[in-house]
Request: fold
Amino acid sequence: MQRQTAAATALILPAFLMLLAFTHWPAVATLIDSLYSTPRGSRPAVFVGAENYSDLLDDPVLFKALANNFWYALVTIPASVALSLLMAISVNAQLPGRALVRMAYFTPTILPMIAVANIWLFFFTPDYGLFDQFVGLFGLGRHNWLNDSDTALPAMMVVAVWKESGFFMIFYLAALQSMPPDLAEVGRLEGASRWMFFRRVTWPLLMPTTLFVVVNAVINAFRTIDHVVVMTRGGPDNATALLLYHIYDVGFRFWDTAQAATMTVLLVAILAALAFVQFVVLGRKAHYR
Reply:
């Protein structure tokens, strides 16, 4: 018994130490840093308590970034989940060239986000880009998609949905393929339509996968920074400044590490609250048997 315990401890210990060093300790250190001022030159950091948190109320860019992130998540999460499910259903059916279609759907996932941002930067280029070429077919004039506060954030949403849907499709496809084929036969014998079978059988069985996908989609929506840096740098007029980008801007451009740590704690609190709500709401509908 002791030998088994020692062997199990030896197997778990490396992963536990890595988790402690690169996940738990940085989180604790960030919380501690949020209670101190930013060190400046020879002036060390001093304990300020909750002063950094009260200073967040005087940051108008933070509220703009939170609002942008709210709309960004509200659009990209349902769109990514719905599109990935449609893609999974389409490639799960018998169709010619199914392997090539699956590869085409999944290809954006394996591309680095920096490369994806540069590809879409060309698509959004005024006059020469794909979007201007398309709208030009209908007699519409040029449009600077990324330099217009009305279209910059929606343009970023399109990039995110295009990038993430293929990744989520893999999980839905695996869940669809694990379903017993007898269910579809019973549905046909009972005269159920495809929509009725999907709503009453397929969708409830996909709830555990949906819970996993939605949690990951929420995390992705609040950790977006790569294509913001490449495509807009938060502009125009902070129209595409998301929360993580604003944290990066404050921490590495203005070098206010204490304020950046405070906003990081806020970000973690938001993600924890959203995760709790997801597990409470969707967890009740997820059946694992």
Remarks:
- The mean pLDDT is 88.
- DSSP finds 13 helices and no strands in the chain.
